[in-house]
## 1
Amino acid sequence: MIDLYGRGWQMLEGGLVTVQLCLTVLPFMIVIGLLGASAKLSRYRTLRVIGESYTVLIRGIPELLVILLIYFGGTIAVQSLAELISGEETRVDIPAFWSGVAALALVQGAFASEVFRAAMQSIPIGQIEAATACGMSPMQIFMRIKLPQLWRFALPGLNNLFQVLIKDTALISVVGVEEIMRKAAIGAGTEKAPFTFYLVAMLMFLAFTTVSLLVFNYLEKRAARGVARA
Amino acid sequence: MFEDFIYVLGKYDTWLWRGFLLTIELLVISVTLGTLLAIPLAVARVSKKVWIQALPFAFIYVFRGTPLIGQLFMMYYGVGQLIANIDGIQDHWTWVYLRDPYWYCLLTFVLNTAAYVAEIMRGGIQNVPNGELEAARACGMSPWITYRRIIFPRMWQMIWPAYTNDVIFTLKATSLASTVTMMELTGAARKIVARTALPYEAFISAGVIYLIIVYTLTFGFKGIERYLRRSEQRKEPKTGKAKAASA
């Protein structure tokens, strides 16, 4: 049971890929989320419309469909772009890993932009006015006033999103990335023991989500250390 | 480019239509049964006795902490194989149902929805103001009547936005049925892609149908939310101003 028909290492490798996926998506998700939130709160109507329609579109489409669209459609798009530039027939393969990262960043970024928007609106307006009165530029206000506080207001939402992200990486197994679910499927098929392999896969995911929960709870406590409690 | 869209929609409209119907069917059954199952789970979860709340806690924790696709594979391939290994089961009359992915999908979606909704309900039940519970007790209401007349109506009012979010989540989750060969909307789109090699046209068509379902549902839910909050809304604007003035 423990060595899983000699495939225990395979499962651990899968676990490593899952962790890689999560940690690769995370920075993209945060950057897209910040950009999206800034667009939604922008003074310019066009940016607001773009920001809002991005969330509206992504919120209504299943993650799996986005992953499939980017995996199958992305290759064609990049290929025709390459042909347009080079002028000759070229063959491009986007690795499944990166098309998965792109899809998850796109999906999670939309939800993150909602989290950051709410967080930005929680920052007292008086502080922004004070910063403006001191002559700070919008960029300076963002870097010095908004960003440091954003962290605290956004953490509970990000905690939730990261949980969703961990679980959503399992969907990338559908396009063949060898993370936990894919490794489990391979093991289940070749060893004819689906129950055992999927059980192990689920326990691994449960361990990941639990660790993530504990880390975020710690960070939330830490981020609130300078705040007076009611 | 648009010719391809027209081609896909014209030639495979019955696939998409059947996929749409199956998606709606999975959604309605999962949400209805999931919600019914969530009520006892949530009530047990808020119990003060450890042995009553331990089991629902574990159930909710496991189902919320693992990916739905894993739960589905575990049911369909894992449990499915355990059942298939039972002696003589393949000649039994129930075998037709026991090998059909449809029932495994439904079971997984129902349990998954129940876990998420129970967690939302737990929050709602715990946020019912204590004064109202004391008042109910003072009026001599039994726990059962208190739940029926005070706690559940208050809970629905509070959890409605989160609950409707979860219905949307379940709708998107039904797309996973395509991974176990079900031909719901995503499954239909995948089959069209396999047939025509036109990924954009097929997936975007399916995506647009999902969007239409999601925003039709959202529109309906907003109407129900207004109904649930009908008692509050009338006062709100006035009291807000009066408070600001007196302060």
## 2
Amino acid sequence: MPKLKPEDLEQISERMRKMVVLREGAARAKIIVHMGTCGIAAGARKIMAAVLALMEEKDAKDVIVTSSGCAGLCSREPMITVELKGEAPVKYVDVTEDKTRQIFDEHVMGGKILAKYALAIGSERVS
Amino acid sequence: MAEYRMHLMLCAGTGCVSNRSLKIEESLEKELKKHKLEEEILIVRTGCNGFCAQGPIMVAHPGEIFYQMLTQKDIPHLVEEHFLKGRPVKELMYTPPEEKAPVPKMGDIGFFREQRLIALRNRGLIDPERIEEYIARGGYTGLAKALTSMRPDEIIKEIKDSGLRGRGGAGFPTGRKWEFTAKAEGEEKYIICNADEGDPGAFMDRSIVESDPHSVLEGMTIGARAIGAHHAYIYIRTEYPIAVERMRKAINQAKEYGLLGEDILGTGFRFDVTVHRGAGAFVCGEETSLIASLEGRSPEPRIRPPFPAQSGVWGMPTNINNVETWANVPEIINRGAGWYSQLGTDTSKGTKVFSLVGKVKNTGLIEVPMGITLRKIIYDIGGGILEDKKFKAIQTGGPSGGCIPEELLDLPIDYERLTEAGSIMGSGGMIVMDEGTCMVDVARYFVDFLRGESCGKCTSCREGLESMYQILTEICEGKGKESDVELLEELCAAIADGSMCALGGTASNPVLSTIRYFRNEYQSHIRDQECPAGVCRELIHYLIDREKCTGCLLCVKNCPSDAITGERKEPVNLNQEKCIKCGICFEVCKFKAVEVK
């Protein structure tokens, strides 16, 4: 291990930023892969693997990936929800690995909602 | 590095390890593998989270979901439901005593919500054995700032302005202490980190070293730069094996990264640290005893002056600070004295770490701003008294602290106010006592501890504590005399006056404070031969309430001295002559038919 200089501390911090973001929950974007039994049966695990691979490939530092249960629309699984900070969550249905890449590029990294794959914008209400 | 979508922060502090958290880790690894999640989810061993009563503890990120009291059999369900399918498991979350529904997020739990973390800023958030994780959360930037853009006198001024005072107990202003050592003449100067935590029931220093050893090392290195020292010792008790191991690892990593050793951060400054294991004598917490022990002599204090700042280890100027004090230093340098001194009271700035134990629902380790009231600590953070019994007293400051009664619960705590109340801040032990505690017995317990730990050098401490113990024992046995209370007060003054170090100097606190606030309990023991709390064996006896007794014979089976006899479904008889007052019948009876009088 080379001996550090003061400026190297910043580099290590930058390299480890994902860890801090994940543990402090202060992310710019959140990707939720729906992993209910229905989602998994429809291939959600593959979608999750694809999302994680994209995270690495794009070196997305302030994005959190998480899972959640069945959203109630089992026929349209696999589903993912993208939530940018301060914006309403967007649900994407019938996703494939290819669609995931497009959603990741345009919405997560680019900030533009991909309307053609989106089911709805916003969350259902619980009353 | 592979992408992990989830970090499982598993507590591997001493408390949780004793509660088998490492077995939980084995089960987690197995289950994650089973679901092929091992490349998606990372298990991180952290230091103590502080909520030791609920261990083993695990926090799942993202989401900060707090799981507690985990057992191995919970893990398969937890992994499948939450970590695979994303449905947090409510049954394994914490439900505060006053609420019905579990609280999923760690930060929403009362125990954590009221805390303010500075010394413990990284607890539970990093793997203490990975220096990169410490750096990722801003670690070693305070050192970089101190080495590259501050003169030694500027560092000292910053610490002075912050108002930081010694967290080991006495509360001496840290900046002034550094200044004395910096100005002292000597060919070599030394720094010592006092991690000889000897108070029964206290684990502040252990927990800091276990959860964030680099914060201590960084603070020490900044101090070394300010003082002009190049060598340091960490005096840590050998009963803390996990802390010793983590500190050694941290030192090695810091050396590899050039954060310790020669030419630190390329600035030319050199500093090395040696871990010295202590054998666990309470008196070694006193600085001159600690130095004697470090040099290989028997740990006896000596008269000051000269203070260690003039003549410490190997006769050289030495600056000793406690673990918690050192851990605060990097944050003060990073954020500035102004930021730190906003917190706290007029005389006591910043936060203090306390170990909250005894008859309180949420036992554990807490860090709170100075000036918080005892009531807030006991009821908001501690969750109130166990079994909702009545609060009686809180003992602060370890064995040589005093007992503070209910009428002072709204006291905002800082160094001065605790002293006025007849106690001390000490290193931060807090023992909560309920109505079932006899205050004379408590005084006797602490005097017994102190007489065992007295090094014996000063006659007043050695003989005085012995005499006090005998008098207190006689009072507990109902053989006390009217004049005893006065005699105890006289002895207290003599011990405090005639002892060289703080052990003798503060040893009278448990006795004086219990006399001050609970004099009536002393009088009941002496005049009426009664122990109001029903604790002192010689003064109580057990009775069977014949109306309530169902004749289940459970007490008969459990009585070790065959003092209870009886027939099934008939009230039993207790033979007072045979009874040894062990209290087992009282504990086993399901019908409250055994009474203490």
